[in-house]
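[Automated response] Your request has been received and processed.

Submitted sequence:
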Amino acid sequence: MDNMEPNAQNQVDRHINQMNNEEKGEILANFDQFKSYLSQQITKGERIGLSEEMLAKATEKVASYLAEHEEPRNREEHLLKELWEAGNKEQQHQLAHMLLNMVKQ
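Generated structure:
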């Protein structure tokens, strides 16, 4: 994630840190809500001109935060966390790209 544009990285950090537990709970309550939230954030990123790679790096940052700080609340989140933790940095980056592709459909 070191190659991510500093301003975009700061925006992702700020957004994650500003979310309260209730907001996180609503987003993570079920997997469809999580996908919808991620899709909305990707759309915002595309509107401000972020490239596919920058979006993947932002997705990677969010996934890393979730794996480290949030307990999975459904089986899909459990699976994503296990995949995330099983992968090396390159595999995690590819998983971020796959998440992007999934929510863009």
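Summary generated for your ticket: The mean pLDDT is 87. DSSP finds six helices and no strands in the chain.
If you did not submit this request, please reply to this message.
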